[in-house]
Automatic annotation (TrEMBL):
Listed GO MF terms: FAD binding; hydrolase activity; quinone binding; sulfide:quinone oxidoreductase activity
Protein name per its UniProtKB record: TIGR01244 family phosphatase
Xref: InterPro entries: BLH_phosphatase-like, FAD/NAD-bd_sf, FAD/NAD-binding_dom, Prot-tyrosine_phosphatase-like, Sulphide_quinone_reductase
Flavoprotein in keyword set: yes
Superkingdom of the source species: Bacteria
NCBIfam families referenced in this protein's UniProt entry, alphabetically: TIGR01244 family sulfur transferase (TIGR01244)
Pfam family, one: BLH_phosphatase
Entry cofactors: FAD
Residue ranges of domain Beta-lactamase hydrolase-like protein phosphatase-like in the record: 2-109
Keyword line: FAD, Flavoprotein, Oxidoreductase, Quinone, Transit peptide
GO biological process, alphabetically ordered: sulfide oxidation, using sulfide:quinone oxidoreductase
Residue ranges constituting the FAD/NAD(P)-binding domain according to the UniProt record: 151-461
Amino acid sequence: MDIHALTPALAVSAQILPEQVETLRQAGFCSIICNRPDGEAGDQPLFADIERTARALGMSAHYLPAESGKVTDEQGAAFGALLDRLPKPVLAYCRSGMRSTTMWALSQADRLPLPQIVDTARKAGFNMQGVVRRIANHGRTPLDVAEAEHAVLIIGGGAAGIATAASLLARAPELDIAIVDPADVHYYQPGWTLVGGGVFDAARTAHTMASVIPRGVKWIKAAVAAFEPERNAVILDGCRVVRYGHLVVCPGLKLDWHAIEGLSDTLGSNGVTSNYLYHLAPYTWQLVRTLRAGQAIFTQPPAPIKCAGAPQKAMYLSADHWKRGGLLEKVRVDFCSAAPALFGVPDYVPALMEYVNAYGIGLHLGHTLTAVDGPARRATFTRLNADGGKETVTRAFDLLHVVPPQVAPDFVRVSPLADAAGWIDVDPATLRHRQWANIHALGDAINTTNAKTAAAARKQAPVVAHNVLAALGKRAGVARYDGYGACPLTVERGKIVLAEFNYGGKLAPSFPSWLIDGTRPSRLAWLLKERILPPLYWRGMLKGREWLAKPTLADA
């Protein structure tokens, strides 16, 4: 743990883990304050996990979340009041410690001289100059002072952001590029299904962020608070300002765990798990291995979600394990999906239904998970009836695999870049923002109708790279994205239904049917998923090598 002392009574840190709470107690901490909202990242334990552990050790634990870069004066006051009354010393944490330090700085604005606040934070490793300017400017961030300016600024260091930076540099090695992302680790999230199925070790899916950012690209290790597109500026946490010539936005999705009543209180315990969290995918495999009989339920929320086939993948791999162990007759498997169909592209449904029937899976479409009672092992669903009405259904479980509802990040949904539904508003072919010509976007947070998968980002990145350079006068023509997405559906250990399709559900196979027929289960597709795609991701896509991803160009 990287702990920074601000005062004898308060220290701040980056995200802590439940297993680290006992160490904090041994170090003398009496109270914990969480300033990070649940669901910001796939490697983030929920506050309920921290709280359970802390209370068992006799420590106080309090939840005072704030959006990154958007700490309010009211939250600063609440933090100060909490700090006054809690047993001390107190550890406050968020993603990096910046939000917690900002809350402390705001809480001390009328107690300490501003230079003392700045100096105290600086000694702890945090730059509060932007916060002080905000205090002096009566709560508003002044935009006339920029920390930096770059020709191309990329928001997000996930698959889409790193691939776009690499594709830009492959075409224009001299280009001034910066990536904004607060995370220390970059994850190969498509591998988490295989972690939950006992095929991959979780560590195989994680590399340091520093190791994947292309050489020559500046890394701004910070979170975004707001966009000011009319001023070509982005406000970061700590009230810092960065300007740009062209902006590329690809921040991923927010996992909305609190949208399901009771879920955050029990996730990671009582047989409730999710492959959508890095630290819980191994728990999925633990539950699958130890379940000898009983009820297993796998859920899927309303669209859109990242990799809409992932909820089924977890189910099929689990059922295959129980089948191989002679336990499938003793384990009842149900798939409760909010979708009206098993899969959004009809051509792949027959092959999937063969596995649903072979495993004896109970298929319940139009079922949305709304509440979980972990200790009682009960899950509540809202079911759509044939007449359009709704009713509540409660099911018992021994294992519950949950996929949460997913939305664009908060700083996107409330920004000028978003459409009425909260997604970044882009042209579906060029991926350029509909209002601002110097802004492009790709990945999971855009309002296009393609599947939200890493395969889609692999195709989108070269399109955005070309079109940004065309806007800079460094390339001719316009690149167009056709909506390609891919979903390798792991229907059993050793076989995959390789779904590939464009906008409108039109099939878009990458291989001839005699090699891989995507509408049928294939061993070769499994080898592609297990052996070829991971190194292709790390050494190809993230390095600007556009195998089967060269963009289609048209006249401007």
